[in-house]
Amino acid sequence: MLHVVATPIGNLADLSPRAQDVLRSVDAICAEDTRHTRALLGHFGIGTPALALHEHNEDVLSERIVARLLGGDSLALVSDAGTPLVSDPGFRLVRAARAAGVRVSPVPGPSAVITALSVAGLPSDRFAFEGFLPAKPGARRDALARLAGEPRTLVFYEASHRIVDTLADLRAAFGDARPAVLARELTKLFETVLDGSLVDLHAQVEADPNQRKGEFVLVVQGAGHDDDAQLAEGRRVYGLLSAHLAPSAAAKLAAEITGAPRKALYGTGTSDG
Ligand code: SAM
User: Fold this and answer.
1) 36 CA → ligand 1 middle, Å
2) Where are the domains of the chain?
3) Which pLDDT score, from 0 to 100, does residue 258 have?
4) Ligand 1 centre and the CA of 122: distance in Å?
5) 151 by DSSP, 3-state: which?
């Protein structure tokens, strides 16, 4: 049997008891980075051997690993963080194992995409996970232009050194007013979830170097929601009222008048971190 085991995206206490049992009981663990995985195993006192399976050797190694599985070994597959195969190696091994008739069984757990969606407060019954955008600016802008009309909530992974440029490109492709959430360092010490329009988020991340550190998931509301117009109207009314009232009172009134979410009207909506 091949167990596909999700591991924490930050907080080590998120490694489930079943994941610990499986990692302890298998003959070996296929890991993206064995040093990283040994540190995790060490934390839980698990001594199972780890072997490296990453994007550069997965094609070659999959056959050998499947042979071990067919020979009766029980193995686990993990990645550095979260759920294997989600913007991580593993799909070739899983495909090869399934093709050979090996049982592949999941041990579910954290994944940054679902973790971010769970706190974003954006429509989540349907969403499109886009993983990492292309690193090259031209290709990234082309990809975003193709997504501008997508009605489902969009989820992106992004690296810290590209987050400001990506927010600028998102503004250009989707418009300044599109509601979005930037989830940073989830489950870690500096966990921060910022919400607002794309222009708000861009301004906040540009202004504060701390908001450019760590790991990011960007959740962007889909196109064509009436909410966009409602939010724009809410912001306009908030702008007028806030010249005369305290921000909280102005936001409360503007929300009542326009139906826009009160929190989004502060313009710099933020939660802890
Ligand atoms: N397999 C992983 C999963 O299930 O989420 C994703 C692996 S991908 C190589 C790593 C990316 O996931 C990071 O660049 C970041 O975009 C996102 N990510 C992982 N951990 C995160 C965290 N704690 N907070 C925010 N984003 C995170």
Assistant:
1) 15
2) 2-110, 113-220, 227-265
3) 79
4) 19
5) coil
